[in-house]
Design a protein that fits this description.
Length: 451
């Protein structure tokens, strides 16, 4: 494995205003990178953040002094934070400064797995929004769904579709994030394989694919809707040239994002349409290579009439009342024998999306009703919508790790029935307390195997 930056890339970047070739090469010669996490504000945890440096462009982002073994932290499994590369957290700043959080929206994260930016959107958009997180690859869609389950919000639908499927939803989406598959040069410091795989031909192939993905899916963005386009590539062909192509061919107009000069982010302007682009270089800030540009769709974009769609009478089974915090705010529906909940205000959206797309998950899976009693699902253990009255079984760190290994728990307890196994007050999963033992319901496919 090599950590020598391809000379063809350095030559191209050397022509960009303000680019420092020596500093760029030398940061790649040093081993290691930066580790950062983004806190889930919906899960109150006792993480000690006071001594950590903050990511300047994201109020929930923090740098860690070194990279811990996250598998050994129960709060990681509980979805209290997401390990995310710091530059990508700039999307939080874009949402705030473009005022995309002012009202409920339908947001589509088109290339979403493993879910870093979806969990960010979930935190930063208006809480009554709907997030559709899509991933084209089936195996990656599963990881995406799991990460969103950990994040705990019910206003999310995970789909597993090719971008062209979104053509069937013309003018439906208010905000679209396309974090496109790219040549990956921005990850060279962390991923030396990406250096070996890089070539000028690969950059051109990625650039063509990025145009195809955008052209296929953009009909879903409504007139006046916002596109956030990002890559982890340094190549102009995948960044500023795509921005120009979006203005020329897709009816988009560029948007500027105010930045603080001290952050070290490089603002570029594309050649033809002077589209502002935001470049992150690891020699200029604490983060990996990243590019973001924002656009508004000028239109015209015809859209289907959602008023024609009526909601079905979807009542919530009364058996869920003692389990769900704001019982009246949700609608319930079944997937196979499982009950799911979704915010009531998003019932019509569920119908729209169900008709057109392949759904990998929708809302929060709460569990099965068996003879009038709920057998709770693991997903619901990680939900932020649980009623505070659900019994808890508090575990210390060793017990929590044993629980996450799906081991046996031998603890004193004074009640029988379902309870949430918690660590530092944060739920990890379900246990069923019986008179003579405690059954561990942590899903076997989630258990931590090697410690
Ligand atoms: C840069 S990654 C997304 C990372 C993700 N947004 C995050 O922050 O965690 C790009 C994603 O695009 C997907 N992808 C690959 N080819 C694609 C295509 N032709 N159309 C749509 N998505 C594609 C990949 O499977 C990958 O999950």
């Amino acid at each position: 494995m090599s950590n020598i930056i391809p000379p063809a890339l350095v030559r191209r970047l050397g022509n960009l205003a303000g680019f420092d070739t020596v500093a760029f090469e030398s940061v790649h010669e040093r081993e290691g990178g930066v580790t950062s996490i983004r806190i889930n504000p919906a899960k109150a945890s006792k993480l000690d953040l006071a001594s950590l440096d903050r990511v300047p462009w994201c109020d929930n982002g923090f740098y860690l002094p070194d990279r811990p073994i996250f598998t050994l932290d129960p709060l990681f499994h509980a979805g209290c934070y997401y390990v995310q590369e710091a530059s990508s957290m700039f999307i939080a700043h874009a949402i705030k400064t473009l005022a995309l959080d002012g009202q409920p929206v339908v947001a589509l994260d088109l290339c979403a797995a493993p879910g870093g930016k979806s969990t960010l959107l979930n935190t930063y958009l208006h809480p009554d929004s709907l997030l559709i997180a899509n991933e084209i690859l089936k195996a990656r869609a599963t990881v995406l769904a799991d990460n969103l389950v950990r994040w705990g919000q019910a206003n999310t639908i995970v789909t597993n579709n090719d971008p062209s499927a979104f053509r069937h939803l013309p003018g439906y989406v208010d905000i679209m994030l396309v974090d496109a598959p790219c040549s990956g040069s921005g990850m060279f410091r962390k991923d030396h394989d990406a250096i070996t795989e890089w070539s000028e031909a690969a950059v051109l192939l990625c650039s063509e694919r990025q145009r195809r993905i955008l052209a296929d899916s953009l009909p879903a963005l409504k007139e006046g809707g916002i596109l956030l386009y990002s890559t982890c590539s340094y190549s102009v062909e995948e960044n500023e040239e795509i921005a120009d192509w979006l203005c020329e061919n897709q009816g988009m107009e560029p948007l500027g994002i105010p930045i603080n000069e001290s952050w070290g982010i490089e603002q570029t302007l594309s050649d033809k349409h002077a589209c502002p682009g935001y470049r992150f270089y690891p020699h200029k800030l604490r983060g990996e290579g990243f590019f973001l540009a924002a656009f508004r769709k000028k239109g015209p974009q015809p859209s289907f009439d959602r008023r024609k769609l009526k909601t079905e009478k979807n009542s919530m089974p009364k058996e869920l009342e003692s389990w769900i915090r704001e019982f009246g705010a949700f609608t319930a529906f079944t997937v196979g024998s499982d009950l799911h909940i979704l915010p009531k205000s998003r019932e019509v959206d569920l119908r729209i999306v169900q008709d057109m797309l392949y759904l990998r998950n929708a809302g929060t899976r709460v569990g099965k009703l068996v003879r009038g009693e709920l057998i709770p699902a693991h997903d619901f253990a990680l939900s932020v919508e649980q009623s505070p009255g659900i019994p808890k079984l508090a575990l210390d760190r060793e017990q929590a790790l044993e629980y996450l290994r799906k081991g046996n728990l031998s603890l004193m307890h004074d009640r029988n029935g379902w309870a949430l196994a918690t660590y530092e007050d944060v739920p990890l999963g379900w246990v069923k307390i019986l008179p003579n033992r405690i059954n561990n319901y942590y899903p076997k496919e989630w258990r931590i195997a090697t410690l």
